[in-house]
Amino acid sequence: MSRAFAPLLVLALAVALAFLTVPVLAIFVDTSPGRLLDSLGDPVARDALWLSLRTTLLALAIILLVGTPAAYLLATRRFPGRALVLTLVELPLVLPPAVAGIALLAALGPRGLLGGALQDAGIALVLQTAGVVVALVFVAAPFYLRQAEAAFSAVDPSQLAASRTLGAGEARTFARVAVPAARSGLAAGTALAWGRALGEFGATLMFAGSFRDITQTVPLAIYDRFAEDFPGALALSAVLVCVSAALLLSVKLATRHDGRRGALA
Amino acid sequence: MARVPVLALALVALVLSACGDSSDSGGSGPVVVSAAASLKGAFTAYAEDTGGNARLSFAGSDELAAQIRQGVRPDVFAAANTKLPDVLFEEGEVGEPQVFAGNRLVLAVPAQGAKVGSLDELAGPGVTIAVGSASVPVGSYTRDVLGRLPAVQERAILANVRSQEPDVKGVVGKLTQGAVDAGFVYVTDVRATKGALKAIELPKGLKPSGAYGVAIVKGAKHPKAAKRFVAGLLDGQGADALRKAGFEPPPSP
Fold first, then answer.
1. Pick from A109, A212, A214: CB nearest B179
2. ipTM greater than cut 0.85
């Protein structure tokens, strides 16, 4: 059996590798470095890149600020309904982007559940840069929460107990002991959430629309170019691939540096 | 013991059969149609009337044209303009195009509580507008029509545009969700919302009417069915479905 099985394993890996890498490599084969630089000089592309950078960083800041303490609570306390809360928080992970877009419209759109309240408060999200950030937070936050919860769970409880025994309050223990101890897992979660936010397309288009320098992020600019300027779309895609690959690499390095291999699980 | 290889073989067979699915060249399978988003209602009705033996996919005409250039091979390509089929014909991707319908660009607003009542109010402060992206026919019609307005008015209207959607469905969606106050779509799109939107006709001088072109794709797998489908659009159940959806007869050249 093992004689027949081993080559099959190798074959399976080869097929998987080829299937997953050939499309990504094709982007670079079809794009010359000159074309790539040209596309970066295009003002529409530059606006899209700049907007993507701003909106994803803002979304990331919100996710870290709220997500870190929330994940800490989920990891260190046992309360009734905890499993349900975990599942609900992770749900956007498996939602199709179009469903996320519809859901955001139904909740926060002008005719949505909270649309009237938002309008009374003078908050405009739809077709605004703020709407892009909302869509990004919605789809990317679960990636961070999941990872951060796992990272905090892996911190030795006796370490936290020792900190409290030595007189550090709960807040100090969180900031000075738990966060540093979980930092590589938190960094990995940050990079994953960032990658997801950079690639966000459907929810952004449906909830925030597509307008240059306001809501047209890089994926939307790629889609807009795809029909008229395929090489241009390829070049912009290549930029996104490079950034995403750098993010993934940083996740690997962050988790490896710490020697904790379970961080990505 | 032999379970794993058998499973693998079954998987391979499954993939192969899925690939081979569309390879019957006898023209007996369903005709595969790539059509402009604005044709959705009319073509769906046409396909149902003729026994449902058609596979329809709808998107912005420009995206469908780009797919054909990238080697995607539907049997029929129906666009919301005549330019895209003409260009593809010159490039040798499709057969000779035919004009099969006309449509009219209108200003669409919510049927109830509309903030905008006329083209003149569109340039007012605080009005939000959605249009098609410049690359998609509805977007280029919109820009052509607005280009026939006085330059000051055109600029003021374009300054109120808040979203450039990849196809006409996106504009309609933004309108029905109340995300914008007004949008430029086809009169048939307004009709398809069954009363949710209201059409404000544009002055004839702006030439809001446009023609739709259809062509059979070179190398179509079901050429006979494709020919039947196109013939029905010009005269038959397809033409009836188009009229019912509000499309005009092909404008005489």
1. A109
2. no
